[in-house]
C-alpha cells in the first residue's frame, strides 16, 4: 500500500532487479515518484513499475547506461520534463567481477571503473547541478571496502572511490540543503552475490555476520528509506554499513 504521495521525485539507478528494485518499491511506498532506471533489463523494469502502480504509487522506467554521460543527462532531462524536478538520487547500479589482482585482465578493471565509478560520477554530476533544495543523494558502496578479501581489489577500489566522492560532494553542496550519504551493504541475496558461488561458500559467507544470515534487498532498502526520508534529514556525509555486523 502506497503512503501519501510526497510529490518528491527519486531516480534509482539499476532498479529493475536486486537491491535497486527493492529500493524503488520502498521509496514508492514511502510516497516518492520513482524513476526506475535500467540498462538492459527492460522487461524487469516494467514489472517493477507495474508493481508500484498496482500498489497506488507512481513510477516510470528509464533506460540509461550509467557509464554513458549523455544518456544520464537525457534521463535527468526526461525526469524534469515529466515531473518538474529531481529530489533524490540513489546510485545503486553496479557490477562485481572478482579475480586475484595478478589474474585480472584490463576488461575486468575497465568495466568496473566505467560502471561503478564513472557511472556514479556521471549521475552525481547531474544531481549536483540539478537537485532541488531538500534533496538527498544515496550512493551504494560495499562493506568489502573494509574487509580486504582477496579477489576484491578492483571492485573494492571502485567503491572506495564512491565513498570518497560522497564525502567531497557533501562539502561542495554546502548551503544547498542536500545530503549525500553512502550505504555499504554486506553479502546480500541477489544475483550479483549469489551467481557462480557454490552453496557451501554462500552458506559460509552467510554465517560471517553475527546475525548469521545474508542480507535481503529489503534490508538495504530500509536504510536507504531512512536517508531519503524525513528521519534522515540530519544524517550527512556518512558511510553506513548495512551488513548484520560483518564489520
Ligand atoms: P544485481 O542484482 O546484479 O543488479 C545490478 C543492477 O545494476 C541491475 O539492475 C543492472 O541493470 C544495473 N546495472 C548494471 N550495469 C548498469 C549500467 N551500466 N547502467 C545502469 N544500470 C546498470 O546487483 P545488486 O546486488 O542488486 O547490487 C546493487 C548495488 O549494491 C551495486 O552497486 C552493488 O555493488 C552493491 N552491493 C551489493 C552487494 C551484494 O552482496 N549483493 C553487497 C554490497 C554492495 P540491468 O539489469 O538493466 O542491466
UniProtKB/TrEMBL annotation:
- The protein's superkingdom reads Bacteria
Recorded hits in InterPro entries, A to Z, give: KR_dom, NAD(P)-bd_dom_sf, SDR_fam
Q: Which GO terms describe its molecular function?
A: oxidoreductase activity, acting on CH-OH group of donors
Signal peptide region: none
Ketoreductase domain ranges (all copies): 8-186
PANTHER family assigned to the protein according to its UniProt record, in alphabetical order: NADPH-DEPENDENT ALDEHYDE REDUCTASE-LIKE PROTEIN, CHLOROPLASTIC-RELATED (PTHR48107), RE15974P (PTHR48107:SF7)
What protein name applies here? 3-ketoacyl-ACP reductase
What organism is recorded for this protein?
Oxalicibacterium solurbis
